[in-house]
Amino acid sequence: MTAALTVYVLMWPVVVAATLFVISRGFFREWAEARRNGHDLV
Amino acid sequence: MDGMETAQFSAVIVVGLLVFFYGGTFLISARIGKKEENADGYMTAGNNIGFGVSAASMTATWIWAASMYASATSGYTYGISGPIHYGLWGALMILFIYPFGKRIRAVAPRAHTLAEVMYARHGRSSQLMLAGSNVVGSLISLMSNFIAGGVLISLLSPFTFIQGVLCVASGVLLYTLWSGFRASVMTDFVQVVAMLGAVAVIVPFIFFAAGFPAAFETGAANLTPQQGNFFSSEAFMGQGAPYIAAVLAYAIGNQTIAQRLFAVRESLIKPTFITATIGYGGMVIGVGMLGVLALYLGFEPSGGDMNNLIPEMAATYLPSALLALFFIMIVGALSSTADSDLAALSSIMMADVYGRGVAGKGRANPKTMLLVGRLTMVVATALAVAFASLQLSILDLLVFVGALWGALVFPVLASFYWEKVTSKAFTTSVLAALAVFLPVRFGWIPVDGVFGYVVDVLAVIGIGVVLGLMVFGFSNLMAAKITGVLAMVVAAPFAIGSLHEYATLCGSLVAYSVSTVICWAMSARRGESFDFSVIAERAGDFDDGDAAAAAPGGTGEALDVPSPRSAGGDVPDGREPEPAAPAK
């Protein structure tokens, strides 16, 4: 039970970290592409 | 734990953190600022934002300070399933709206607000209902975030609540005023990095610092059987069910979501909304787990005020450096939502009030529009600060606006798929739903007699409507009808006779059912139909400047949507034959 609760609590920071990675990767790719093409990012 | 001493920052450190945060966001805003902003860019950034920026922006906007506090409160009150019953349904609000969002975007690719599209579809009354509820909702949200900022600063520093509110309000206005929505989405990325990064570090740190996992065993006695049960019926009925009912309502009624729906590149709507769903869910449920940990520890927030729970947990278990990160996380959460609210309010005043109302399509001056948008931000900030100082009950206000949005869900969604829905059906159904909602929600009529059974029957129909609409978004009309009927048949034996005891849940459900039944009844027999393709022309760009021309579908490129056979004049009449636009 303790192990299950530990996983249950600590899985959310892992989900958050993975989402942060996906968003950051998308952002920096678009930023680099915008710079290459001389466009504004927004 | 009662009466503990929480850590505090000195005035110099708090000022330093605020200058670091708002100074940084202002610099980002200044970097993207243009001397001559484009009016459409100010509202929707050219309808062409990429995945990274839009996913960050959706996530940051949907996470507000109250969602973190409320999730932790839910964990503390309902136990281990509490954060799920807050965060999961909140996350699904984003997920369930994207299929409808794709349809809305296909019908109105260059619109700025949902109210503007309703004007193109039905005319003035539906536009006013949607815009009015959006304005009230955004003002409440703005006020709530300023209150959260004031509370946080007063709790962790020598500054007073009002000084905290003024710091946050002026900081947000500073970086949003000039570039509007463009500044909002650009700064959202930095804010989301701060928020998500902080949760990824802070939650595990507090977990181990507070003596977990051993505390799961030593503190188990602090939980009631319901709190220790993952399938707690108390948690579902008290927290989860009202939220499920609100899933579509909050997404439809919130202009901050609609604005991002119109801003993101059309092909990226799905990945953006799915990523934001996961990001929001992980973040809010993760913070909510602090409430569960507090429950196991027997931690009591000072004064019994649940708003103190998270800040006091952080102040108790985090070292100064991580407490500063926590401070930035909360300031980031409230600022990203507040700047989105300012951008939403300004776009409603620009597009709906000035653009479609005062000036009229084709006659709106882009420079005047920008002035209207910026003045709106200043006035809205002043109003929100004034309301924040009164410390009104945010939850009561949100419940009322949420019901108004619930009444709008079916008429709004049906208006995008069903050519028979008329302005009269829209307006009548929403007003009737509100008229039934008010006595149910606030107990104006006793529900222990016949009226109670009427409420239960309407609520059961509401369950069918909510689930049917959710299925319709991802499937088709037949599957939605089957789901709706099945849901009613399954729920009826349990609900009739008892559901009226849950006033919040019933209030939302009757708002759905009454508006749906009346809107359907007034529309079904009509022989006339509406040509959806005229909406694209009626709800288009105001400014033919560079930002609009550069974007796909802008004035410089052909639209990839059905071309209207008739513009239909300035006032929608709904008399065109059925459309080339894709229909469900």
What is this structure, in a nutshell?
Chain A is an all-alpha fold and 42 residues long. Chain A is built from one helix and no strands.
Describe this structure in words.
The complex is a heterodimer of chains A (42) and B (584). Chain A has one domain. The N and C termini of chain A lie far apart (48 Å). By secondary structure, chain A is mainly α. Chain B has 584 residues and is mainly α. Chain B folds into 2 domains: 382 residues, Sodium/glucose cotransporter (Up-down Bundle), CATH 1.20.1730; 141 residues, no CATH class. Chain B is globular and about 70 Å long. Chains A and B meet through helix 1 of A and helix 3, helix 9 and helix 13 of B. Chain A: InterPro entries: Trnsprt_adja_ssu-like. Chain A: Keywords: Membrane, Transmembrane, Transmembrane helix. Chain B: InterPro entries: Na/Glc_symporter_sf, Na/solute_symporter, Sodium:Solute_Symporter.
Rg of chain B from C-alpha positions? Answer: 24 Å
Oligomeric state of shown chains: heterodimer
Alpha carbon gap, first and last residue of chain B: 57 Å
CATH superfamily of the largest domain in chain B: Sodium/glucose cotransporter
Helix count from the secondary structure assignment of chain B: 23
Stretches of chain B where pLDDT falls below 50 for ≥5 residues?
1-5, 547-584
- CATH class designation of the largest domain in chain B: Mainly Alpha
Number of strands of chain A: 0
**Structural class given helices, strands, pairing of chain A?**
mainly alpha
Count of folded domains of chain A:
1
Say what the CATH topology of the largest domain in chain B is: Sodium/glucose cotransporter
CATH architecture of the largest domain in chain B: Up-down Bundle
Taking the sheet with the most strands of chain A, its summary is:
none
Number of domains of chain B: 2
Largest interface: A-B, 30 and 43 residues
Transmembrane segments (chain A): 6-28
Keywords (chain A): Membrane, Transmembrane, Transmembrane helix
Pfam families (chain B): SSF
Protein name (chain B): Na+/proline symporter
